[in-house]
Design brief:
The chain is built from eight helices and 18 strands. It has two domains: about 240 residues, Deoxyribonuclease I, Chain A (4-Layer Sandwich); about 70 residues, no CATH class. Helix 5 packs antiparallel against helix 7. Strands 1, 2, 3, 4, 5, 6, 15 and 16 form an eight-stranded mixed sheet that branches. With about 325 residues, the chain is of the alpha+beta class. The protein is globular. The chain starts with a strand and ends with a helix.
């Protein structure tokens, strides 16, 4: 039995005339589950199926068959067992696979991605997963490198993220994920995606640029195929959107905030750094403390930029 929960809808402007439906789940092993999965989704089939923790090796990965879908983006762990991420796409859709294997580190970050064609605004879909035992600082560093690379192609980004961080609680790890805001990517999952020991948390999340993708719907799906619930997101990918302004986030760095930053650093005791014996723990302790103070001293500020019609924007770009 498949239970579909209450959706979270955000809408601005016109009703969409072109929509994109994506399914994501930390599947905890894909073997033997594809038929049941399709039964749950047969009434309204998504354009893409995104999985993390598929637990397949390279030989098994290429043998998995899902009717009407093709496996077009994938990553398997190089040394360790289990883990992995992949994306299945409806066979008739046009896309380009993005190779991000060089950024993957088995326990720290696993990622695969593809870019749709202009029918869906050249949207890039990334599926990212991190093991709870992985190095979180490495994850954030590699994620930042990936986003820098993808910024070059100037397309809308959708990140399906399973990073084992409760995004509804204020923690150091959540603060480090604020790096996503510098790329205008914001969390849109507000419901629980896992229940464990009588507690619930949204540790699987979706990040999109809400200033460009104006209408979307997020739906929780409980299908019993994993201890993590699935999510379906419906996006308006219409080009005909009216927008009065764009929203950007910047850090306010000036002589006053720099002075506050330096003063805060001077008041830290750094005991865990100077008294430690393990160089990795010393480094992680230093970096966590440094970033905590950095984010507190230079918080993001929202800036509303008036929208400029295309002819004026073109003239402005060519005059600078």
């Amino acid at each position: 039995m498949c239970a579909i929960g209450t959706s979270v809808i955000h809408s601005r402007g016109q009703t969409p005339n072109q929509s994109l439906k994506l399914f994501h789940q930390n599947i905890r092993g894909l073997r033997g589950k594809t038929s049941k999965l399709l039964c749950h989704l047969h009434q309204d089939v998504p354009h893409l199926l995104c999985f993390s923790e598929h637990h397949l090796d390279q030989s098994e990965r290429d043998c998995i068959y899902i009717e009407k879908y093709s496996l077009r983006a994938k990553y398997c762990r190089r040394k360790l067992q289990r883990g992995g991420v992949n994306i299945f796409i409806q066979s008739h859709l046009k896309f380009t696979t993005l190779n991000l294997d060089k950024y993957c580190v088995d326990q720290d970050i696993k990622v695969c991605a593809l870019q749709l064609d202009s029918t869906f605004l050249n949207i890039c879909i990334l599926v990212i997963c991190r093991s709870p035992a992985g190095n979180f600082n490495t994850f954030v560093t590699q994620l930042d490198k990936i986003l820098q690379k993808l910024c070059i192609i100037k397309s809308h980004l959708i990140i399906r993220c399973d990073v084992n961080v409760n995004y509804l609680q204020e923690t150091d790890k959540k603060s480090q994920l604020d790096v996503l805001k510098s790329y205008n990517l914001f969390s849109i999952v507000t419901f629980r995606t896992r229940t464990y020991n009588n507690s619930s948390s949204p540790i699987c999340n979706i990040f999109i640029d809400t200033t460009k993708i104006e209408t979307y719907e997020v739906i929780p799906v409980i299908n019993g195929l994993s201890d993590r619930d699935a999510q379906i997101i419906n996006l308006n990918t219409s080009n005909n959107k009216s927008r009065e302004y764009q929203v950007y986030f910047r850090r306010n760095i000036n002589k006053y905030t720099m002075a506050e930053f330096q003063n805060s650093l001077s008041y830290e005791s750094w005991d865990q750094v100077f008294d430690g014996d393990d160089v990795n723990k010393i480094f992680n302790s230093f970096l966590n403390t440094y970033l905590r103070i950095f984010y507190a001293s230079f918080p993001f500020k929202k800036i509303n930029t008036p929208w400029i019609i295309k002819p004026l924007a073109y003239r402005k770009e060519n005059c600078t």
